[in-house]
């Protein structure tokens, strides 16, 4: 879902001097944000990075979830994907997070053929997931020394998001659980003793009860430490009022598990068209989402995603939403 958005910031964004308030929480209950690295970000200057992290700080964010360290478009050459390991963007994120006292959770490799591959038979899915494991391990090896000594590094994130239909059959559940355990094992050999998080979302296929039972099974089987439930409001998967029905049942089913549930608030609105485009959501709707989801978020909610939709680097509408937030605390 989030990965399918394929959001890319323009390479030629001009960042003008920008001053934000320096104290206080702009929105109560906000814990952090997702961040999607792109090749365009390799050209960002220090002022751009400072602007982004100043925005994070003024919103009171404490965690950044890096969606992936490598994103590969393999649609035209699935059999021989080419990985590019220029991880300078990840290093920049870590450096700025350390300077601002923020935590960073790191994703792995995402192949955009994932959504097609999970519609195939189990053996092909296994092959795809093995490629992800191999690519992720190779990429993380490049930055493992930095992660090992960074006070900002908080844990791992599975870049493949899990829907409410594909994985419900026991055979597919077993494949998923094996993948999560094996991936965590691979990464733990590089940087030990770090928890793993994974994203879930609903297309309205499984009932809230069934989805909660599924995630309890995954949590108990894999030891995953956090399930991030994307509310789907921005892409019109669920309505604002439907989201708490899922959160309530998932929370009930997962009670007693060594796993936390954390909502992800989509702060954008998808626009009509064949290709994904979106714009910042109205603040009124975002506040409605927070009202419904915060009762199920003892650790606060995550936002998707501040860089694109609530910051100066996201364009005029994103900057306008940020200013509205900061001046309507």
TrEMBL record:
Residues 30-312 form the DUF4434 domain. This is DUF4434 domain-containing protein. It comes from Halodesulfovibrio aestuarii.
């Amino acid at each position: 879902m989030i990965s399918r958005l394929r959001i890319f910031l323009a390479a030629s964004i001009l960042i003008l001097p920008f001053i934000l308030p320096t104290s206080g929480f702009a929105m109560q209950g906000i814990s952090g944000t997702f961040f999607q690295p792109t090749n365009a970000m390799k050209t960002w200057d220090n002022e751009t990075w400072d602007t982004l992290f100043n925005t994070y700080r003024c919103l009171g964010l404490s965690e950044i979830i890096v969606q992936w360290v490598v994103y590969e478009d393999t649609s035209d050459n699935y059999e021989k994907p080419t990985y590019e390991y220029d991880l300078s963007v990840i290093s920049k994120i870590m450096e700025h997070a350390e300077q601002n006292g923020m935590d960073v959770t790191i994703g792995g490799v995402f192949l955009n053929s994932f959504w097609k591959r999970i519609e195939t038979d189990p053996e092909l899915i296994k092959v795809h997931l093995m490629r992800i494991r191999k690519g992720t391990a190779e990429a993380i090896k490049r930055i493992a020394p930095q992660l090992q000594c960074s006070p900002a590094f908080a844990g791992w994130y599975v870049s493949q998001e899990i829907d409410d239909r594909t994985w419900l059959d026991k055979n597919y559940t077993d494949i998923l659980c094996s993948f999560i355990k094996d991936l965590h094992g691979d990464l733990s050999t590089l940087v030990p003793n770090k928890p793993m998080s994974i994203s879930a979302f609903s297309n309205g296929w499984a009932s809230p009860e069934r989805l909660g039972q599924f995630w309890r099974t995954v949590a108990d089987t894999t030891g995953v430490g956090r399930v991030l439930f994307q509310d789907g409001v921005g892409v019109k998967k669920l309505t604002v009022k439907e989201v708490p029905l899922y959160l309530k049942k998932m929370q009930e089913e997962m009670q007693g598990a060594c796993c936390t549930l954390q909502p992800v608030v989509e702060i954008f609105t998808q626009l009509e068209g064949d290709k994904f485009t979106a714009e910042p959501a109205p603040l009124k709707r975002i506040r409605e989402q927070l009202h419904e989801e915060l009762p199920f978020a003892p650790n606060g909610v995550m936002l998707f995603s501040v860089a694109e939709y609530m910051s100066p680097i996201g364009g005029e509408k994103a900057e306008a939403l940020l200013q509205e937030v900061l001046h309507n605390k």
